[in-house]
Specification:
alpha/beta, eleven-stranded mixed β-sheet, 17% strand, cytoplasm, nucleotide-binding, Sua5/YwlC_C, Threonylcarbamoyl-AMP synthase
Length: 425
Amino acid sequence: MTEDKHSPFAAQRRSGLIESTLYWSLASGKEGTDGRTESSDGLPVSTSDLGMISEAAALLRSGETVAFPTETVYGLGADARNTAAVEAVFAAKGRPSDNPLIVHIARREDLDRLVTEVHPVAEALIYAFWPGPLTLVLPVRPGVLSPLVTAGLDTVGVRMPDHPVALALLRAADCPVAAPSANRSGRPSPTLAAHVLEDLAGYIGGVLDGGAAGVGLESTVVQVQPDGTVAVLRPGGITAEQLAAVTGTEAAAAEPAAGADTPAGASGGGSVPVPPAAVPGGGEAGAAAQAAAGNSPAPRAPGMKYTHYAPRGALGIVRGSSAQRVAETAAGLLQAAQRAGEITGLLLFEEHRALYPADPAACTVSLGSLSSPEEAARFLYAALRRFDEAGATYILAEACPVTGLGAAIMNRLMKAAGESVIDAG
């Protein structure tokens, strides 16, 4: 892996030996033909895997770091009580220290040891969505976690993953596990163990390979306000519509998704300028959620402050009043970029492929159908890594509707593009 010499974060060192990162290939958690995680014998965790999971749990208890699969993406775990272990997570990722970590637990009773109170609305969300891709930001119990986990805040994000390997590891380790995504900071999150090794081999203690992640996007992060309203600090695998079905009220979005008309500057890439972005915002819901996030330099949840999920090439999001306009604009920019010597990439939805000329980019990747946002979510990060494999320097991606899971997809794309949006009219 090539180090970014201009990174604003602390420079890190490899251990020197790739073999220093242990690797366990598991039968449990491998995807079946229906996309659900299952072991070959139908049990949550196969007997043959218990020994390997126990070894990984022993590493966690000893203060080492272990990457493991969840239903969202692979996480890089460490004992959340052990400051030296948590420091190793930040070091491996090159992660800024004011970016809090999510704590993973295996049992509901574990939560009460970590937080001082759980609002009744939060309890209802736990009942509805745990185990699953929902993180709740709650008041932390003083002294039980490393202060690095909370970035010095008085709250902590906690979730219970819905993956047999993750739950087995957490139970075997018998400790709260702080686990951000198992990738270098700013890079696309890992949905395969191979992605973890690409970024972190030689940096971490071990990797449990449980196959492909099912959801493909990180958890939704929410904070319940004293009046019972829910602020979405990061969209994810649980949609705003699903939250509202439980709480009876609309959730407030802390981070706007693409779609409104507030102008903002945006950076381009390569020799082809990218027009200024149009980034949405405003409204009472946004203001309420921003209040929930607070004015502290440390964000309440991961993914709120820094550019994330980015491929190495420049990425822009193309949106417009029709798919035809988007395709025409993207095709023209890609052709100009190719003439300027760029290696081009295009991320599109399958039903729009016929709107483009043959071979519109050096690397064209489909996210599947717009009618199946679950498929797009599952393969988004792998698609962004495909552009890196192709050496793409100038990449355009089609926008998608911001309803349902599309809100989380667009959130990740906007973060990856540094808010750079091209309006096709």
